[in-house]
Amino acid sequence: MAGNTFGTLFKLTTFGESHGKAIGGILEGCPAGLQLDLEAIQHELDRRKPGQSAIVTQRKEPDTVEFFSGIFEGKTTGTPIGFAIYNTNQKPRDYSHIKDSYRPSHADYVYDKKYGFRDYRGGGRSSARETASRVVAGAIAKQILGKVQISAYVSQVGTMKLTKSYQELDLTLVESNPVRCPEPGTASEMEAYIKKIKKEGDTIGGVISCVIQNVPIGLGEPVFDKLHADLGKAMLSINAVKGFEFGSGFAGVQLKGSEHNDAFNPDGTTKTNNSGGVQGGISNGMDIYFKVAFKPVATLLQGYETIDKEGNKVETHGKGRHDPCVVPRAVPIVEAMAALVLADFLLLAKTNRI
Predict the structure, then answer these.
(1) So what's the pLDDT on residue 93?
(2) What value, to the nearest 5°, has the Cα angle with vertex 254 and ends 253 and 259?
(3) Nearest-CA neighbor of 217 among 146, 140, 287?
(4) Which terminus of the chain has fewer Cβ atoms in its 10 Å neighbourhood, N or C?
(5) Which residues, at least 6 apart from 238, have a Cβ–Cβ distance to it below 8 Å?
(6) Interior CA angle at 33 toward 28 and 39, to 5°?
(7) Which backbone phi and psi does 188 adopt, to 5 degrees?
(8) Which residue positions in the chain have pLDDT lower than 70?
(9) What is the 3-state secondary structure (H, E, C) of the chain?
(10) What is the Cα–Cα distance from 251 to 274, expressed in whole angstroms?
(11) Residue 108 confidence (pLDDT)
C-alpha cells in the first residue's frame, strides 16, 4: 500500500490498524542533538486520546508512546525515530456484523474494490486512530519549531459558530472545556448540543480554526510546493475533513483588489493580512490562519440500510464506540499536521542559500 509517508526532509511513515496490536511510526530527518521533552509529547497524545470526556468515544486507551530508536540520553541522534502506541482496548467483535456489508460514507466499499480485501475491524488502516502517530511526530516537530506558536480551536459545531476572529479570542481558554472552544458560553452550548446528538444515536460536524504565529519569512516554495498548498494537503489527509479555507478564503471573492491587497508597512509587515501569512506560496512573517471543515462522523448508532458484497440491500445498525462529533479530539491533530509541514519547510529553507 502506497501513501503512508508524509514530508520531504522531515518525513513520517505510519503503520498499524485500529484494532491491531499497535499503531506507530518512523520519523526520518530529525536533526541530531535536539533535547526532547518527552512529557510534552505525551501531553499532546493525551489531548487526542479517546475516553477523555462524555462527548467523545468511550474507548479506553492510555495511548502511551514507546520509543525504540533515534533517541539517546534524551536527545535525538539524527537516525530514524521509531515509536509505537499499543492498542490495549480492542473490541473487534463490535464490527463482526459488517464483515460482509459496507457502512455508508466509510472507506469500506472502496477499500474492498481497490484491494479485494479489507480489515473490517473499525476500518483498519482507514480508522482515525492512525492519527495518534501523527500527533507524536507533530509534537517533535513543534520542538524543532521553537518560538513558532500553533494554536487550533473549535470554532463551529453544526450551525453554532464563533463570530469573533482569533485576535479577539483568548486562546489560553481552549483547553478549559471538553469542546476546545475558547469562548466559554458558546462552548457550553456546543457541549450540550453534542450530548443531545449523541443521545439520538446521531453525529454532527464542525470546523477547527488554526493560527500560526512567529513564522519566519521564506518558508515554502514558489511553484508546486507552496506553503499553503502543503498545509491544505496535510489537513485534507485527516480523516473526515471535507474543506480547507486559507486566509481570506471564499469571503475574499466578494472584495475588490483595492480592498483585498495587503499594503506594506515600512518594516515589511502588512497593514491587513488577507493573504493569511503567505504570498507567492512563501511565508511573509505575518500570522498564518486557516479553517478546516469536518463532516459528521459516518458511523451512526441507529438503524440504516446498506448493501452487502453481492449488492443486496441489508438492514443493519452501528455498534462500537464512536465520537458523536470529531472536532474536539481533532484539534491536536490539526496542530500536529501544521507542525509537520512547517518543520519540513524550515529544514528545506536551510538549502535555499549557500
Answers:
(1) 58
(2) 95
(3) 287
(4) C
(5) 128, 131, 292, 330, 333, 334, 337
(6) 80
(7) -65, -40
(8) 1, 51, 58-60, 89-98, 122, 317-321
(9) CCCCEECCCCEEEEEECCCCCEEEEEEECCCCCCECCHHHHHHHHHHHCCCCCCCCCCCCCCCCEEECCCEECCEECCCCEEEEEECCCCCHHHHHHHCCECCCCCCHHHHHHHHCCCCCCCCHHHCHHHHHHHHHHHHHHHHHHCCCEEEEEEEEECCEECCCCHHHCCHHHHHHCCCCCCCHHHHHHHHHHHHHHHHCCCCCCEEEEEEEECCCCCCCCCCCCCHHHHHHHHHHCCCCEEEEEECCHHHHHHCCHHHHCCCECCCCCECCCCCCCEECCEECCCCEEEEEEECCCCCCCCEEEEEECCCCEEEEECCCCCCCCCHHHHHHHHHHHHHHHHHHHHHHHCCCCC
(10) 10
(11) 81
Backbone angles phi, psi at 182, to 5 degrees: -80, 5
Cα angle: 135, vertex 239, 20; to 5 degrees: 70
Per the listing, cell 462552548 goes with 187
Neighbour tally for 254: CB within 10 Å = 9
CA 180 – CA 154 distance, rounded (Å): 6
157-180 as b/e: b if 16+ CB within 10 A? beebebeeebeebebeebeebbbb
How far apart (Å, rounded) are the C-alpha atoms in residues 92 and 90? 6
C-alpha cell of residue 183: 469562548
First to last CA, the chain: 38
Q: What are phi and psi of 309, to 5 degrees?
A: -65, -20
pLDDT at 1: 58
- CATH code, 5-349: 3.60.150.10
